[in-house]
TrEMBL record:
Name by which UniProt lists this protein: Catalase
Origin superkingdom: Bacteria
Residue span of region Disordered: 1-30
Organism in which the protein naturally occurs: Virgibacillus phasianinus
Keywords: Heme, Hydrogen peroxide, Iron, Metal-binding, Oxidoreductase, Peroxidase
Cross-link (3'-histidyl-3-tyrosine (His-Tyr)): H334-Y357
GO cellular component assignments: cytosol
Catalysis: reaction(s): 2 H2O2 = O2 + 2 H2O
Pfam families attached to this UniProt entry: Catalase, Catalase-rel, Catalase_C
């Protein structure tokens, strides 16, 4: 459809909607659709907010039985071990004794796509952890980005409606590069900070194993004396935080749309267990208003340089699921699944999630008894007066199912705080019932600029390219212009080249006066290791057997995973009779599926091997990956003019080569490489 034709249709739709006012499904005129009803501007969301509950309930039940968001997911079992007791801050039992291990179940996911979508979409990733503690299940339901698009849960259905495929043609799948999403962004500018993250490398992670996780919201720790602290949670991957490049992501979706789940499955099966350290940022209640941002605002992070992350434990994923449907698909997370010592704040996005997550399970898992499914069942006993319902698995005995009672000795009975009963933190709440947002939530651009200031040169170029790609797919010139003008408030260095790339007017004014940066936000400052990195070894008959074996042994000793790629499956034979099994052909093992390339060749390789190798090298080179070459491979790299480029290792001394190549693999990418 031409842009003019689409604009004519949009004009027609606008004319049909002209002068119409928003109502509830019962026909009641709505006075406010931005904010949930609160007890004061910074107070908790009230249960009587019928408009919020109607809107959210409808959204929660729009898809049956697939999750509306986070439909595409993969999960694994593991255990969490504490480094030091957190008794000073919280009475949560699983955070008291370093000698005790807590079973966990973790589900990773994309947000926008359906269950059948590719895993390398540009998207936020879910990172949800269920701790099976002795006090009940605790769910830390987060993302790989520490902030979110919106500040109030009232806007969540709107966000997802805008992000999902457009309803008139259900296009595009698992992508934000379309009109409705960017129209939402331009007209809901609280999304600015999250959009910066979504356009960054964080939105195309290399692996679930190399992806940070964040609780997003501000929670409370409460100790056994009743003293509270504000807390944000972090998962820090032991392998560092790494990504792919956009061209690579698009190709991987075609070559292997299951790339992330396969990576996780294979790592666990091979004993390379993914590990993440749990960190907590902790703020004393007396310091709530000390910062230049509102600590309850879910579109804001707490810079690690201002509020250090205290590393308190480690999670290891060491067992794959036995059945994806029974475990990964049926697991039910909820930020309201807490244990004594962990409590909530008045973050208005969190407040809405406390309603929504139970509500959405009713359709997806068939009723109120989803907690009895094996993957959701707590490891500790549970007793209450709930009975019946669809899919009830517990067979309850006796005539009594109410409290208070005398016929059963008034059991089950509540527990006191001292006995381990959950008692909500007694925060003082006062204020008029209002649909409003605190003035302190209205700065939408400072932290978006903070993020931009914190990026390396390469990361900034990737963000510019991401905006240019996404907005280049938008058909409405008005929306394109609105977005460019909006992000001029973040950085003119960003907005002007994007405007030029998509052919709209460059912004005339903007620019933030924020000069602060946070090095912790750049992936360039993350841990870099060769461990578990996949290395494609391009090998043919007649290769230098003993010398290549020396290199492969060095790679394995450093934790890298070399896999042999050749013309056909079977075996290749070295000049010394050494026989090596082939793992992939050039047809099944493309360069985008590997972290590094080791080019060897062989005396008896064909012209086709040469051509396929040249393509392999060129693609890996353009993706800034480490490339090594010895023997014939060294000659090919020298002949191509690539041998002197950064991250390209060639050497006749096998020991020197292996050492240098391992260092190059650990570096991940070489962004200063010149690509012509």
């Amino acid at each position: 459809m031409s842009k003019n034709k689409k604009n004519e249709q949009l004009d027609q739709f606008r004319a049909e909607d002209k002068d119409k006012k928003m109502t509830t499904n019962q026909g009641l005129n709505v006075s406010e659709d931005e904010f949930s009803l609160k007890a004061g501007e910074r107070g908790p969301t009230l249960m009587e907010d019928f408009h919020f509950r109607e809107k959210m309930t409808h959204f929660d039940h729009e898809r049956i039985p697939e999750r509306i968001v986070h439909a595409r997911g993969y999960a694994a079992h593991g255990e969490f071990e504490l480094y030091e007791s957190m008794k000073e801050y919280t009475k949560a039992g699983f955070l008291q004794d370093p000698a005790k291990k807590t079973p966990v179940f973790v589900r990773f996911s994309t947000v926008a796509g359906s269950r059948g979508s590719g895993e390398l979409a540009r998207d936020a990733r879910g990172f949800a952890t269920k701790f099976y503690t002795e006090e009940g299940n605790y769910d830390l339901v987060g993302n790989n980005i520490p902030v979110f698009f919106i500040q109030d849960a009232m806007k969540f259905p709107d966000l997802v409606h805008a992000l999902k495929p457009e309803p008139h043609n259900e296009i595009p799948q698992a992508a934000s590069a379309h009109d409705t999403f960017w129209d939402f962004v331009a007209n809901n500018q609280e999304a600015a900070h999250m959009v910066m993250w979504a356009m960054s490398d964080r939105a195309i992670p290399r692996s679930f194993r190399m992806m940070e996780g964040f609780g997003v919201h501000t929670f409370r720790f409460v100790n056994d004396q009743g003293k509270a602290h504000f807390v944000k949670f972090h998962w820090k991957p032991m392998l560092g935080t790494h990504s792919v490049v956009w061209d690579e992501a698009q190709k991987i979706n075609g070559k292997n749309p299951d790339f992330h789940r396969a990576d996780m499955f294979e790592a666990i099966e091979s004993g390379n267990y993914p590990e993440y350290e749990l960190g907590a940022q902790i703020i004393d209640e007396s310091d709530e208003f000390k910062f230049d941002f509102d600590i309850l605002d879910p579109t804001k992070l707490w810079p690690e340089e201002d509020v250090p992350v205290k590393i308190i434990g480690k999670m290891t994923l060491n067992r794959n699921v036995d059945n994806v449907f029974a475990e990964t698909e049926q697991v039910a997370f909820h930020p309201g699944h807490v244990v004594p010592g962990i409590d909530f704040t008045n973050d208005p996005l969190l407040q809405g999630r406390l309603f929504s997550y139970t509500d959405t399970q009713l359709s997806r898992l068939g009723g109120p008894n989803f907690h009895e499914l094996p993957i959701n069942r707590p490891v500790c006993p549970f007793h209450n007066n709930q009975r019946d319902g669809i899919a009830r698995q517990t067979i309850n005995q006796g005539q009594v199912s109410y409290h208070n009672n005398s016929l059963a000795g008034n059991t089950p009975a509540p527990s006191s705080w001292e006995e381990g009963g959950y008692v909500h933190y007694q925060e003082k709440v006062e204020g008029r019932k209002v649909r409003a947002r605190s003035e302190s939530f209205k700065d939408h651009f400072s932290q978006a600029t903070l993020f931009w200031n914190s990026m390396s040169d390469a990361e900034r170029e990737h963000i510019k390219a991401a905006f240019s790609f996404e907005l280049g797919k938008v058909e409405s010139e008005s929306v394109q212009q609105q977005v460019v003008d909006m992000f001029a408030n973040v950085s003119m260095e960003l907005a002007k080249p994007v405007a030029d790339a998509i052919g709209v007017m460059p912004p005339e004014k903007g620019e933030s006066d924020v000069i602060k940066s946070s090095p912790a936000l750049s992936q360039e400052n993350t841990s870099k290791k060769a461990a578990t990195r996949k290395v494609a070894v391009l090998l043919g008959d007649g290769f230098k057997g003993s010398e290549v074996s020396e290199v492969l042994n060095t790679l394995k000793a450093d934790g890298a995973v070399p896999e042999i790629v050749s013309e056909k499956l079977g075996m290749v034979t070295g000049d010394d009779g050494n026989i090596v099994d082939v793992d992939h052909t050039f047809l099944t093992g493309e360069s985008v599926l590997f972290d590094a390339i080791y080019v060897v060749g062989g005396e008896n390789v064909s012209g086709k091997f040469h051509r396929e190798t040249a393509y392999f090298i060129n693609e890996a080179f353009s993706h800034f990956k480490p490339i090594g070459g010895t023997h014939e491979g060294k000659k090919w790299l020298e002949a191509s003019g690539k041998a002197k480029s950064t991250g390209v290792i060639v050497d006749d001394d096998m020991k020197e080569f292996a050492t240098s190549f391992v260092k190059a693999i650990a570096a991940h990418r070489f962004w200063d490489r010149v690509i012509e």
